[in-house]
Amino acid sequence: xxxxxxxxxxxxxxxxxxxxxxxxxxxxxxxxxxxxxxxxxxxxxxxxxxxxxxxxxxxxxxxxxxxxxxxxxxxxxxxxxxxxxxxxxxxxxxxxxxxxxxxxxxxxxxxxxxxxxxxxxxxxxxxxxxxxxxxxxx
Length: 138
Fold this sequence. Notes:
By secondary structure, the protein is mainly alpha-helical. The chain has helices at residues 2-20, 28-39, 43-55, 84-118, 121-137, and strands at residues 60-61, 64-65, 69-71, 74-76.
């Protein structure tokens, strides 16, 4: 459980770093953060990233097409060859996924807290005793 929280924290930090650098130039560190963020995403989010890249496949840079390379280990793309607008789309999606993950984790924690408070047998008996004591005092 601790490693999952560490991974989530790392993803949030990387995403925040990405969003903080919304200027015109993309350095190698920023592209590395984007790559790392995409690599640790679940498969369905990676597929959505691929859809974003595929929808922009016709974009050319310096007169050459940006291609998606696929082999048995996965699909690879050189992020440094991508247009700035595509990188911006990737950053927006990474931010969306990170925000969504934070919200879902918060809701799951609230749900778990409610289950522990109201539906655990020991807690239920304690709540009944406390309510009976306060009802008899009034």
